[in-house]
Amino acid sequence: MKTVTKICLKSFFLYGTIFGLLMTLWEYIDEEKINIWKQIFQGVLFGGLMSWTTITSHKRAIRKQGKNDITEDDFKVSQTEFVNNEKSIQQIYVLLNNNDITNKWRLKAGNSKIVIKTKISWSSWGEKIIISDLKNKIKIESKPIIKTTMFDNGKNRENVLLIKNLIENN
């Protein structure tokens, strides 16, 4: 089964089940009876619409970043990249503070890592980015602040690639 199909089915069942259960509970509280066929129809309709919308949006964001062959890793919200260690953490901190995009983020630098928190945007509730010095490599990790995030429209991948390009090209 194709990767996108598997992810679409997972999100369909998750969205549809949660919505269906909540609407069933609401109907029971409101009317003290349950029309099961109505609830199944609503769950299937909502699950289908939401999974199609989120998957399409996420695929579009990944393709916008220049990647046409979509894999299961592209749908993971936590993204990690490694860069050869040519700069110190302090040099990377200065690079991030001097960049037009990254200087709006909240940065905290330590001896061997930088912790960054981004602001809320249309595609995310914010991300936590950790840049760690692993002696011979720099590890860049970006993940959503809200742990239950299923789709991030490629925002964490975008963060990792931006920082990687900054480190490699400056």
**Counted beta strands:** 5
Low-confidence stretches: none
Number of helices: 4
Quick check: average pLDDT?
89
Strand content: 15-25%
State the share of residues found in helices, binned by percent. 40-55%
Q: Tell me the Rg in angstroms.
A: 20 Å
Write the layout of secondary structure elements.
Blueprint: H1 3-31, H2 36-64, E1 79-84, H3 89-98, E2 106-109, E3 113-117, E4 127-133, E5 137-144, H4 155-169
Antiparallel strand pairs: 1-5, 2-3, 3-4, 4-5
Describe, in short, the structure shown:
With 170 residues, the protein is an alpha+beta fold. Helix content is 49%, strand content 18%.
Structure description:
By secondary structure, the chain is of the alpha+beta class. The protein has helices spanning 3-31, 36-64, 89-98, 155-169, and strands at 79-84, 106-109, 113-117, 127-133, 137-144. 49% of the residues lie in helices and 18% in strands. α1 (3-31) packs antiparallel against α2 (36-64). The mean pLDDT is 89.
Keywords:
single chain; alpha+beta; five-stranded antiparallel sheet; 170 residues
